[in-house]
Structure formats: C-alpha cells, structure tokens
Design goal:
Chain B: InterPro entries: ABC_MlaD, Mce/MlaD, MlaD_Phospholipid_Transporter. The complex is a heterodimer of chains A (260) and B (155). Chain A is mostly helical. Chain A has ten helices and no strands. Chain B is built from two helices and eight strands. The chains are: A mainly alpha (260), B alpha/beta (155).
Chain lengths: 260, 155
C-alpha cells in the first residue's frame, strides 16, 4: 500500500499501452478482411451510404457557411491593404489545404463516427458479435471491415465536396455581395493554388483523417465495456479521441507537406 | 429490391458528386488547367543575386508568361546563383543575346524573371545559358544608396 500512487500510474500506463496494442491488432484484422469486402461489395455500398451519403447534408451546409464566413472575414482584412482581389486565393487555399479536410473529418467524427461506435458497442452488449462468431462468421471481417472501408472511401469525397461548396460560398459573398471583381477572384485563385501542392495534399490529408476517424470509432465500439454506461462512454470517447487525433495529425501533416 | 436499388443509386450519386467536386477543385480552383505539361526546353541563367526568386516563379517576355523557374542552385566556385528555367515549346525563337532581369510584381509582390529579346538571328536551344543577366533590385540596397547619396549632397 506504500506505493499506491506509483502503482496507479503504472496501471494507467499499462492499460493505455494495452489499448493501443489492441487497437493495432484490430486494424490488422480489419485489413485482413479486405478480401471479404471485395467479395461482398454490397456490404461496402451500404456503409458508404450510411457514412457518406447521410453525412452529405451536414458537410455541404457547413462547407457553404464556412466559405461564406471566410469570404466576409477575408474581405475585411484584405481590403485594409487594398488587396481584396486576393480574396479568391485566401478562401480557396485555406479551404483546400486545411479547413476542408479538417472540418469535414470533425463533422464525420461527430455525425458518423459516434453512430458507428454506438452500433458496434450495442452489437457487442447484446452479444450479436458473439452470436456471429458462434455461427463461424468472423465479425471483424463481416461487420467491421466494410465499415472501415466505407469511411475511408467516403472521407476524401466529403472533404472535396466541403471545399468545393466552400469556394462557391466564398464566391457568392465576395463577388455577389461585396463586389470583388469576378475575373480577379478566379484568375488569382488559379494562379496561386497549385494542383499537386495544395489539392492533392488536401486529398491525402482527408484520406489519413478518414482512416483515423473510422479506426477510432470501430475500435471504441469493439473494445467497449458491454453495458449501457460502457457504450455511452465509448461513444463520447470515440468523438473526443477522433477530434484530438485529427487535429494532431493535421499539424504533423501540415509540417511535413508545407513545412519548407 | 427497390430499397437496395435506391441505396446503390444514392451511393453512385454521392461518388459522382465527390468526383465532380474534385474535378471542380482541380480545373477551376487550381492551376492544373494552365500547366502545359513537361514539354518545353530548358535554359539556365547566372545571377549575382536573385533576391527572393522562388522555384515555380513565372518567366515572362513582354509581360506574358512563357515558362517557369524550375531550379535555383548556388555555384560555389563563382559565388553565383544558377537559375534553371523551363520555357514553353511553342516559344522557340528567343535570340541568344536576350537579357534576363529579375523583376518584382508590384512593390511587395513576388519576384519573376523578365526576358528582353535581343536582335541576334541565332536562337537559344535546349540546355543553353543566357549570358546577359541583371540581378534583382533589392529595395533595402536602393534605399541605402539613396540615403547615402542624399547625405553626400547635403554634406
């Protein structure tokens, strides 16, 4: 009893490392289920529908408003330097490089990741996963793998839609409302936004975020304590961890991609 | 079967929408529509100072972009900057006594290379070097020289 504090710290660290290990084993098992997904593409379509199509509304509307706010705020700063023609660059570059991938990932973590965790967690709590195992069906391959790939495929598409809608929102506010010259808006944007450097890197970012968000959601569901309290805690943790990981990864990726 | 079909149609529409958004970003937002590919030929030029010229900066002639800066390196024996440029293949009639300047677009804008054609009947080919160059005008140096001259006049 003398080293209770130290022992508690040790338990915490060991527990965290065990969870990390289990999460990676789960990821390996999911990747091992790739063949199953390819054999039954319908499972994958269902999940792209659940995670992608149903997230479309919130992602599209958020993109529109983020773009419009960027237009307003960017105009306010830029017109102080007489550079309001550069509004297009500012809106497009910040959306494509950062806001598109990051905000779309945060929205998907909240809208789709939480529901994934709750679904898998409840399946575990109601012993449906054990039931599948009993019927000699591997739940990781049958249930988790299609959800994982569904999320990974949907995320870059959602981020691209977010950015595109955002640019249009910035265009409506900048050109339509505030009177920025339309030609300058598009031509300066095209001159400064690079396809490889900005757009492809944005797609890579959203792909990484897609993997991170779905992986965390699935792991939290699969690893949940099978009670109502456990499922509710896992769902919360899924969103919090996904958001933190997305923001942390974003910093690392930005430093790697645009650091020099 | 009906519901199945609807889901598949929605997924198809979603994927198509995502691809359209990416296409929009590529063609309308970024410079992909303006990249003419890797064709064209290479020229080099040596400057004693390139200011803050960056890779991918435009190379212009008469104000029109005819190429891009491809590489910037330092020659440690002559202490000069070596700038490699890729010129569009269509512009194949640059005289070999052309003058290369480094200009700044606007007071605070980025720097670019401006080519001023000479009168020679010989044209530059792939891999040739532009002999006549003028370094970037550094605002700090100009202000310093101006102040120095003013001080000399009044003193």
């Amino acid at each position: 009893m003398r080293f209770e504090g130290l022992a508690r710290l040790g338990r915490g660290v060991i527990g965290a490392l065990e969870r990390l290990g289990r999460a990676h084993l789960l990821l390996l098992a999911i990747l091992g289920g790739t063949g199953e997904v390819l054999r039954r593409p319908r499972l994958l379509f269902d999940q792209i529908y659940n995670l992608g199509v149903l997230s479309l509304l919130i992602v599209g509307v958020s993109g529109l408003f983020v773009g419009m706010v960027l237009g307003l705020q960017g105009y306010y700063v830029l017109q102080q330097f007489g550079a309001e023609e550069s509004l297009g660059i500012m809106v497009a570059a910040s959306l494509v490089r950062e806001l598109g991938p990051v905000v779309a990932a945060l929205l998907v973590a909240g809208r789709a990741g939480s529901s994934l965790t709750a679904e898998i967690g409840l399946m575990k709590a109601t012993e449906q996963l054990s039931g599948l195992e009993m019927m000699a069906v591997d739940p990781v391959r049958r249930i988790l793998a299609p959800r994982f790939y569904g999320g990974v495929i949907a995320m870059p598409l959602l981020a691209a839609i977010f950015s595109a809608v955002g640019v249009l929102g910035g265009y409506f506010v900048g050109v339509g409302l505030l009177g920025v010259d339309e030609g300058a808006f598009w031509s300066q944007m095209q001159a400064k936004v690079d396809f490889q450097e900005d757009i492809l890197n944005g797609v890579i970012k959203s792909l990484v975020f897609g993997i991170a968000v779905t992986w965390i959601a699935l792991f939290q569901g699969y690893d949940t304590v099978p009670t109502s309290l456990g499922v509710s805690r896992s769902t919360t943790r899924s969103v919090v961890h996904a958001a933190l990981l997305v923001l942390g990864l974003d910093f690392v990726l930005t430093a790697l991609m645009f650091g020099d | 079967m009906g519901k199945r079909h609807t889901i598949e149609a929605m997924v198809g529409a979603f994927v198509a929408l995502g691809v359209v958004a990416l296409f929009f970003l590529a063609m309308k937002v970024s410079n992909l529509s303006m990249i003419s590919g890797e064709d064209g030929y290479q020229l080099t030029a040596r400057f004693s100072n390139i200011g803050s010229l960056k890779v991918r900066a435009p190379v212009t002639m008469a104000g029109v972009r005819i190429g891009r800066v491809e590489s910037v390196s330092f020659d440690k024996t002559t202490y000069e900057a070596v700038v490699g440029m890729r010129i569009d293949a269509a512009v194949d009639s640059i005289p070999d006594d052309t003058f290369a300047n480094i200009f700044t677009s606007g007071l605070l804008g980025e720097q670019f290379i401006g080519l001023e054609p000479g009168g020679s009947p010989e044209f530059l080919r792939d891999g040739d070097a532009i002999a006549n160059t003028q370094s970037a005008l550094l605002l700090e140096q100009m202000i310093g020289q101006f102040l120095f001259k003013k001080a000399g006049e009044s003193g």
